[in-house]
Amino acid sequence: MDEKLARQARSRALAAIRTLHSIVKLPADWSEKELQLLRKGVGISIGTIEMDLLRIIYRNYPDLDDLKGK
Question: Could you give the dihedral angle defined by the CA atoms of residues 58, 62, 66 and 70, in that order, rounded to the nearest 10 degrees?
Fold first, then answer.
């Protein structure tokens, strides 16, 4: 993966995380159990993006990791 592709993939991955995170902020007339399942699904999805995509990008291009060292 070249750096240009890594930057594009990172940008889209972070946008996907923001979108997923916004789901849990939506007003919902759901039971507490349903909300817990929703939050779990969102968390698993975000974790997958972070571990299976962003981790690879940051391993190859550590300068793209703006959270490194925090």
Answer: 100
Q: Which helix (H) or strand (E) holds 16?
A: helix 3-23
Confirm whether pTM is higher than 0.70: yes
Which residues neighbour 30 within 8 Å (Cβ) at sequence distance 6 or greater? 38
4-42 tens-digit pLDDT: 999 999 999 999 999 999 998 888 888 999 999 999 999
